[in-house]
Fold:
Amino acid sequence: MDVRSELIDIGSVDFLLRRVFKSFQYRDFRLMWTGACVSTIGTWMQTTAQAWLVYDLTRSSFFLGLDAFLAQVPIILFSLVGGVIADRMDRKNLLLISQFVQMSTAFILTALVYTKHVQVWHILCLSFVVGMAQAFGGPAYQALLPSLVGKEDIQNAIAMNSIQFNLARVIGPTIGGIALVKAGAEWCFGLNGLSFLAVIASLYLINVNYVPAKSREPILDSMREGIKFIRKKPGMDSLIVLAFGMTLLAIPLLTFLPVFAREVLHGGPSTFTQLLAFSGAGSVCGGLVVAWAGQIKGQGRTALMVLVGLGGVILAFSMSTYLPLSLGLIFLSGGSMMVAMSMVSSLVQHVASDEMRGRVMSVYNVAFRGGMPVGSLLLGRMIPIFTAPVTMAVTGCLLAVLGLYFLLVHRRVAEL
Structure:
């Protein structure tokens, strides 16, 4: 073997790894990433068990959609306020409060299931409380993340954050599915509560370079400043609309996977967790692609083309009754979804300044997270009438139309 050739190959692999994991050179980002990953694994364990528990208690797709709606609707109602607060106080402290609240709800649900007192209304109320905590923690986290890396590495940090979220979406449902079948839902909820200790510890260890200046400006005036900033920036309003449309039409596919697992693919909890795991694996691959590509020319156009493809994949998934094909399609949907959403989020982050970042990201958060509960609630009503395959086929077509509209007609995003 040619030693020089082997050294070149090793050097190429090393260069590729350094490029993909560029943001890991920053100590605080590594700590935050690790803590968030452990916590998100716990969250996905709970999400898996909670979705199955709700469906098992009610046998109703409407209650599945309602649970998702109540978890997300506080973000629509309170994220703008959360964004203003994130621009006024130490974002690390705001995040800590959010984590402690979410940890408490996980332990309460553990106790309810363990003592066999759990009812569906308990789950719905706790989902709403978690949504409240995330309405304030979400803008703080999104505003904090870019301050942990250099400006040139923000897109890589966003992609790596997406990777940890979706890596957890592979590991969490897999562990959660085993725990659900072997030990019961209370173990999933209890382990999720413990997982918050990891992100809490990482928050105490990191050093934040930027702390917002205190302000006595009325909250409503600060919110107006954030909205005015967004309206002044070319293409920003289109990105906000696109974020809402993406989550309105794409995310409900994940919400109603228990319906597909049981009624279309005629499986049980293991089939459901396989679908979640393959979706998460696809998202990890999509995140790695974005991290490797970096800041590319024509990023808006690329995101829209991927969005059109995602609509086609969702349409194909809705028509499949063969598990291996469904797993392949859900893998592709996860990858496509992650590429499109990471690129759109990166475009928004690059436009926002440090002093406005909390408010800008809170508006983006309202749009991005706001589409989920609306879509889940609407589709939860439509599925019993039209069936899950027909309903998801329509959303796939609408998603493709949305991408084509911004690609060919309203071209502001395509020109970014």
